[in-house]
Amino acid sequence: MRVGARLALGVVGLALATAGICVACVGDSSTPSTSTDGGVGGDAIANDIDGSKTPIDASTDGSVLTPCAQLPWPQSTGNVGPVQGVSTTFNEFNVTLTSDVFTLFLSRGSGNDIGVYESVRDASSSFPTDTRVTDILSTANGGMLPNVSADGLTMYLQYRNGVDGGAAPEGGVNNADAAADLTFNLYTYVRGSASSPWVGPTPIAGVNTAANEIQPFISADGDTLYFVSDRTTAGVFALYQASKMSPGVFGTVKPITGLAAAGASVNFPVMNAAGTRLFYGAPAGGAVTGEDDIWMVERGNSGGTFGAPVTVTQLSTLLDDRPGFISPDECRFYFTTRAGSTAGDFDVWLSRKR
User: Fold this and answer.
1) What is the CA radius of gyration of the chain?
2) How distant is the alpha carbon of residue 279 from its chain centre?
3) Which of 113, 157, 260, 343 is most buried (most C-beta within 10 Å)?
4) How far apart are CA 3 and CA 26, in angstroms?
5) Cα separation of 83 and 128, whole Å?
6) In whole angstroms, what is the distance from residue 277 CA to residue 70 CA?
7) 310 CB contacts (<8 Å, ≥6 apart)?
8) CA–CA separation, 44 vs 126, rounded Å?
9) Cβ distance 145 to 159 under 8 Å?
10) Per DSSP, what are the bridge partners of residue 103?
């Protein structure tokens, strides 16, 4: 049985719990923000979720708001659900956004055809239907999982290596030698501006090994790369961090421990902009295997020691959940989940505090 208050999701629609424990509402001493969108606060971003936009915290005049970092994640129908325009009947394996929350990337596909897709909006619109990024090498059997830098000019992603040992990733629609591909490693693409083509892929120096390195996440300042690897125990994935040494080069790789039960794998790291809250996926209830919940550890500053892990029950469903992106003001959390899908595929969801 799953622990805590949960999102109870049927196969036809949403049946969302209305009560929950605030597991992500401490440790922020910033001043209250001023509303810029007619009283519902935050970043003046339009509604992305099916249903009405419902503010959960506002003063009587709608002008002064409690910082989102001090608020619990909501569980009401209008504030959590699939993101319109980017959730389809195919698998959306992961999601990442630029720091302004206006450009969204995801990996999508099935079988031997997995690609990166992009959707761009402005402050007054929702995300439109995404388009495939043809500059990015498509792949087969589990590649991609992109993560984008805050400015949207560097993309970090994983590819399977071929017999060349990682000098060039295997890719291409219906890749003929996919069965012979070996481990995953991490790569980057770069571009000069949002309108420029992506150039790459280039292996990330200083982090790749003969084991698997997957699921990269770059910090908001671009100085720390978080990723998952089974370099210590084959098949058991742990979380690591590496420090930026120079452009495209990372070093001083070290594990982040104490996140899950012994023998359990940790997945899809996401760090907040302040470097104080780390979200990740791990088996529910502290089990070694099973469907992943979204967990969080917290520390007082970006160089401190993390406390004990807690399940973010408001963001966890009865099926697999994968953290994707938290906005700099911590008002929005994007993730992928199989909840609510009759076909069992992953969709992009958003939990919105305001």
Assistant:
1) 19
2) 9
3) 157
4) 21
5) 10
6) 12
7) 23, 295, 296, 297
8) 11
9) no
10) 120
